[in-house]
Amino acid sequence: MRSWAVALASLVACSTPTPPRADSAAAPVAGATADSASALPSDASLAPIMEKADSARRRLTAHAESAASVSTVHTDMRHVNMHIEPGIVLAIARLQGTVLPAKKGSPPALNDKRSMIINIESGDIAVDTNSLATLLNRHVFGYAGSPLRNLHVSIDRNEMVQTGSMHKGVWLSFRIRASVALTRDGEIRVHPTAITVAGVGVKGLSKWLGGLSKLIKLEPGHGARIDGDDFVLNPTQMLPPPEIRGKLTAIKLERGGMRQIFGSAEAAKVALVQRPGSSAKNFMYFHGGTLRFGKLTMSETDLEIVDADPSNAFDYALDRYQEHLVQGHSNTTPADGLIVVMPDVQRLQAPAKRKLQ
Questions:
Q1: Which of 117, 123, 157, 231 is a good FRET partner for 177, with 20 to 30 A between their CA atoms?
Q2: Does the N-terminal peptide bond of residue 242 adopt cis geometry, omega within 30 degrees of 0?
Q3: What is the pLDDT of residue 41?
Q4: Which of 8, 134, 32, 44 lies closest to 83, judged by CA?
């Protein structure tokens, strides 16, 4: 929408007659007569034309900017435990950002997590140790030929403890204590401080089998790489769909998991968008742009998904959207928006079996 509007504005500008320079009369064109010179339009006669062209250009520019704004779906989330897969939960304290289409020309759909990209502008998200372990086993090191398996994660005295099995000719049990730090690029550096392999302590990986990079070979493309004696994890690439983008700016190990802060402090101070007709504390709010859910498509989106039980965080499973929807209820707001109340995933009832005729 923006591209054609800007192009049309440029066309109007190019087609508008340009007034003659004040000194053009002093240098008449060769062969021009006094009559032909007097036939040229004056500045006064061009003024209305110029004013109309400028007005049209301003209208088209404003329309293009408005179209660009409407085409983007914005989202605000508070107190949502997002189950992106069974066993992998993102505990979202707050999130502000946009929902982008994964495929050009097709709007994002709430019932198809592969159709959307969640772009985090500001967020406070925690991942517990069970979810971390599942991520590592299923996605980061879950490929054929992976050198690591059966991983478990815990937090002890502000360090991450990983146990499991590594393959070095044969499968060997290992235990690694590691500090965790943020890199300049927003990745997570896991630096081993103590290592035990097959029950034997190892002092310095560089002195044992040539370091971590020679001890373990990782397949690229799974959100993890080795840098010297450190594991480096990409906090968004290691996740399964939907694709998530954002700059990690702070991390902190807490009891039971890892807390991740996305975006700048300034972005976190942005006031929450007004939600007409709602005062819910646990919600996902989508506004602007075009959003699809099931067979329905909403333009100029105004959709809020609310927790049926406000006493605790909203447990929402992406893969069970239809069940959440069917077992909830919805209300239309005076502004033609939609508020959908959904039960927590733990309260979803098993779909009733159809009786054969």
A1: 123
A2: yes
A3: 56
A4: 134
Q: In 3-state terms, what secondary structure has residue 132?
A: helix
Instruction: Tell me the C-alpha distance between 56 and 63, whole Å.
Output: 10
Q: Note the pTM of the prediction, 2 decimals.
A: 0.76
Mean pLDDT rounded to a whole number for the chain: 83
Q: For the chain, where are the alpha helices, taking DSSP H only? A: 2-15, 34-38, 43-70, 129-135, 212-215, 265-268, 321-326
Which H or E run contains 348?
none
Q: What is the pLDDT of residues 1-20, one digit of tens each?
A: 444 444 434 444 444 444 44
Q: DSSP strand E in 234-318: where?
A: 243-245, 248-254, 257-262, 283-287, 290-293, 296-299, 302-307, 314-317
Give mean pLDDT, residues 92-117: 95
Do 169 and 230 belong together in one domain? yes
- Regarding whether 226 and 141 lie in a shared domain, the answer is yes
- Asked if residue 162 lies in contact with residue 233, where contact means CB atoms within 8 angstroms, the answer is no
- The pLDDT of residue 272 is 67
**How far are the Cα atoms of 284, 290, 291, 309 from residue 106, in angstroms, in the given order?**
21, 9, 9, 33
Residue 226 lies in a domain: yes
Q: Write out the two tokens for 274.
A: 């007004």
My answer on whether 273 and 332 are in the same domain is yes
Secondary structure letter of residue 171 according to DSSP: E
> In this predicted model, what pLDDT tens digit does every residue of 147-200 receive, in sequence order?
999 999 999 989 999 999 998 889 999 999 999 999 999 999 999 999 888 887
- Residues 6 or more apart whose Cβ sits within 8 Å of residue 99: 73, 74, 75, 108, 116, 117, 118, 119, 286, 289, 291
Q: Provide the pairing of β-strand 248-254 with 257-262.
A: antiparallel
Do residues 182 and 188 touch, judged by C-beta distance below 8 A?
A: yes
Q: Which residue has the tokens 């004056």?
A: 42
Which structure tokens are listed for 343? 């039960």
> How many domains does the chain divide into?
3
**What is the gyration radius of the CA atoms in the chain, in angstroms?**
30
The answer to whether residue 23 is domain-embedded is no
Same domain? For 103 and 180 the reply is no
